[in-house]
Amino acid sequence: MTSMQVAQHNDGDGAGGHPPEEGYQRGLGSRQVQMIAIGGAIGVGLFMGAGANIAKAGPSIILMYALAGVVIFFIMRALGELLLYRPVSGSFAEYAREFLGPFFGYVTGWTYWLMWVVTGMAELTAAAIYIHFWFPEIPQWVSALVFLVVLFGVNLISVKIFGEVEFWFSMVKVTAIIGMIVIGLGVLTLGFSDAGDTASTSNLWSHGGIFPEGIGSSLMTLQGVMFAYLAVELVGVTAGESEDPEKTLPKAINTLPWRIIIFYVGALTVILSVVKWTEFSEGESPFVHAFSEIGIPLAGGIVNFVVLTAALSSCNSGMYSTGRMLRDLASNSEAPKAFGKLNARQTPAVGIAVSVALMGVGVVLNYVVPEKAFGYVVSVATAAGIWTWMMILVSHILYRRAVKAGRLQASSFPAPGGSAFSWVALLFLVFVTGLIAYDSEARVSLYVGAGWAVVLGIGWVLLKNRDTGSAAGQTADRTLVSK
Question: pTM of the entire structure?
Fold first, then answer.
């Protein structure tokens, strides 16, 4: 069934209806969707990437995470309105297909798939490197292969198993962040530990001011900050398999501001108050450094475990997302038909298997050139994520226009500010894209993006030629039969 056919089908069901013919098992409960949403906001981008951003921007990095967080909330509320209008697993690609046309749905689906495949490559390698912290004698490729096989099995069994594993991955990350904040606040208020004598909120402005490297340097960190928020949109992919999307999805999205305030703004504010920003550097986790300064026993091991969990969580989510996106593409004749099949446990096994195989190739590549490969795939993932967010916003703007004209029913979860906030968020993403183009190191992602656009363009032409040829063949057959 095409996107427009589904939309027409839903006109009779109401705004909140969902197409039962998707075939998925609605096995994700409220508890799991909520924790998946929370976990999507906490990843390696925070645990590791914040170190480089602090070194470049100083305390102003807190403002950059807050600013980006506001934009992310606009994006998620726009997505929420679309999800309650029509909750489908294809999510972003489906909405792009419906409101912008088949080509944009095709590009969005394949680009989101690419984002998770390359992210999975990086996360598997990162997880293998983290294992070296405890077991340096284990070859990197062995750890990566074990993680790949285990997570593949988790995603293949059932969506309930995926949801349960992701629930506990997210629980570890959430508990760790809250624990870090509580301990940091204890150091600030009670003054215990070696860092107690110098810990103070004045560290936020006493060492060169809030913008010690200038506003320009702070703005340049926005591209890295946006990478930290990748996967927050994952809750949209769960829509087709949520037990009660009309209740669970709004709750998950509305709690996003609190997650950003606590896990990003709150955690970084505490850390930069406990340890002055000049002591942080690129290539290290600010959390490990801060807790080493505090003098907590086994701090390195604890945070390493948390970062390992974050990497595995991201890879686990990637496998889940890629299978669903490939199935959506296949259902719209934009990918091989085999990707559209569900196994006996109602999971898109073929799509997941192909994606996992490509992630396995990434493990080999990252083993050969680990440093360069990791940086490149992170840049590509960020660019792909920005495209996805842009498609969500444009689809929302067009949806609101259709509702205003009376062509579509209004969603039960309207975004505050209507399409105005979507325009603000869209302009912000264009600005961040400009920053990426200005940065010589990050610019490689745009080159890769241009190459990816060429590949997708060729693929689209081949698809259209195939469809044209198929239609011509059917016409010829009918002519012969009539004769």
Answer: 0.84
